[in-house]
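Hey, I'm writing a tutorial for new members on how sequence and structure tokens pair up, and I'd like a real worked example in the thread rather than a made-up one. If someone can provide the structure for the chain below, I'll link this post from the tutorial.
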Amino acid sequence: MKKLFVTLLATCVLTSNVYAQKSNEIFSKPKLSGYVIGQYQYSGKDNAKSNTFSLRMVRLSLDGRLFNDFAYKIQGQINGNTSTLSESPRIVDAFVEWQKYKFVRIKVGQFKRPFTFENPMNPIDQGFMGYSQNVSNLAGFTDRVGEHSSNGRDIGVQLQGDLLKTANGRALFHYQIGVFNGQGINTKDVDNQKDIIGGIWIMPVQGMRIGAFGWTGSYARKGDTGIVSLPKRRYAISGEYVINDWTFRSEYIHSTGLSFKTSYNEKSDLSNTEINYAKGDKADGFYALAIAPVIKNKFHIKARYDMYRPSADWNTSKTYYEVGADYEFVKNLKLSAEYILVNDRSIEKHNYSMIDTQLSFKF
């Protein structure tokens, strides 16, 4: 996969340069960009203590425009091993979007599911050591249903746009709705049933968004006895306010639907259709965060309350109480550090500490 992605990037760059010399109206010169996130993390979990350096993420991206009205993007994650789907190098984005009008845009390919405010965010801009637990488990990162790690993405088509502009051109209303395979990235549909995911939000004042999202669909596997399809019924309520380098964001997500006992990490898992009835058919989670500037656009302090209930009851809840800071040395080079108190009611010793430090740069 890594060789394929590098070859694809080189081919695209060479081809686009040739076309750019012939006609700037057909292909804009593609932009190659990316980012790297290095991480050190300590965990004091009883009987599972650890401290390690790692490459959390390495991404390369190629994007540009076609015929002025179309934007395209190809993005790959190139770090990780080659033995499991959750950590293997892989293509994460590959799409084209028609962008002629702001009130209606059409995107086709593989891209972020239109669910929650946090899911579409860049991992660096998201602000904390990782996406919140409810987004990670209920928006297709390490989905509770048993889907392979898909970075919040799927294959499909999406319609979106901004409406009701003010006198100065600021939109007051946004809508988005998409139809997807329901199987995650780089995977064909199994049960021929599609996921429908959508959301709307209003923007009453500059920097504020208040939104609601819905998701109905299924995740399926084909075993010895045939296809087993598990329904996904989810909704999210979201709010965000970003102004003068201050950020406040909060989201609640609720999910109904059973899960498979084994997550899809290897091809053999696809034939394992055993259902995890003990986990139940409900889950939910909530987070609230604040990021405050000490030096505007340079130095921030931050805090997050992050709770997830994998069976929608308090006996299995896991809560992160996080405080931290980040500092940008120069443009696109950032150091962040957090202390996390974890309360995990599913284990004997509920409380333990974590420390997370990340150095990231974009190019």
